[in-house]
Amino acid sequence: MLEIKNLSKSFNAGTCNEIKIFSDFNLVIKEECTGILGTNGCGKSTLFNIISGVVMPEKGDIILNGKCINKFKENDRAKYIGRVFQNPSMGVSPSLTILENISLADKKCQRFTFKNLIRKNKVGEYKELLKALDLGLENKLNTKVKFLSGGQRQSLSLLMAAMNKPELLLLDEHTAALDPKTSRLIMEKTQELIKTRSITTMMISHNVKDAIKYSDRIVMIDGGKVILDVKSKDITEKELTGIYNSRNYGSPIAEAV
Ligand SMILES: Nc1ncnc2c1ncn2[C@@H]1O[C@H](COP(=O)(O)OP(=O)(O)OP(=O)(O)O)[C@@H](O)[C@H]1O
Ligand SMILES: [Mg+2]
């Protein structure tokens, strides 16, 4: 369970460019998959950056499964939090092979030298994980990731983010750069991973249909507040699109309140 308590965050505070993103923002996430929606610029990625320790808030507590992680640095939080980005190159190391990438993810937050990165006795296990993606990546262990397609990279990135069963998985528009067929495939794999491993997940998406289909709960943020919080089964695509379209684009607090 993730608890966000009394969170406040502004950028460029004290200047004429100040933007207030959150002011006393509260959210509790218990479900396996919560879809996070909101117009461009409302602060969704900033929220993920705050949870991951990339961006520091002025105020507020981030509590993950009962432990307050406010003081944990980004690296320490990475032990508990997996993240997949919109850009398929961000969650992987393109100049390393598939095997090296998976080995890195497996050793996340452990001390190791590059020489002892790959453990031969783990290769069979990695192949099984890759096989489950149905993309034939288990036969390309020594291929550099830069030679993979966006969809293949994103599948690998997802697998790496989820492989050691993080306490929280953050998906930031992770299918937005993919074609419709690949996007569907990745969404199916995402759901399978989340459900089989019971990982608490927050999934940012602008795709209303996917958000309803693949999330258990929908949270919409606007003007630094939660403006909608419903079970996915209790809202239709049409209703959700209507609420979405009624919001102003890029509406941080100052404009929305
Ligand atoms: N490091 C930063 N410094 C200054 N402003 C920032 C920084 N990061 C984000 N912002 C601003 O904060 C606002 C929210 O950005 P954010 O990326 O969180 O939006 P978003 O909801 O993820 O939007 P999108 O749907 O387009 O991805 C934007 O106005 C953005 O320009
Ligand atoms: Mg974003």
Care to describe what's here?
- The protein is of the alpha/beta class and 257 residues long.
- The protein folds into 2 domains: 2-80 and 168-256, P-loop containing nucleotide triphosphate hydrolases (Rossmann fold, 3-Layer(aba) Sandwich); 93-165, no CATH class.
- The chain is built from 9 helices and 10 strands.
- The protein binds adenosine-5'-triphosphate and magnesium ion.
- Adenosine-5'-triphosphate (ATP) binds at residues 11, 19, 21, 38, 40-46.
Briefly summarize what is shown.
By secondary structure, this protein is α/β, with parallel strands linked by helices. Helices cover 32% and strands 23% of the residues.
CATH classification, class level of the largest domain: Alpha Beta
Number of helices: 9
Hetero groups in this structure are: adenosine-5'-triphosphate, magnesium ion
Widest beta sheet: strand line-up: 6-7-8-3-9-10
- Main structural class: alpha/beta
Shape: globular
Oligomeric state? single chain
Q: CATH superfamily assignment of the largest domain?
A: P-loop containing nucleotide triphosphate hydrolases
Number of strand segments: 10
* Content of β-strand: 15-25%
Radius of gyration based on Cα positions: 19 Å
Termini separation (Å)?
A: 29 Å
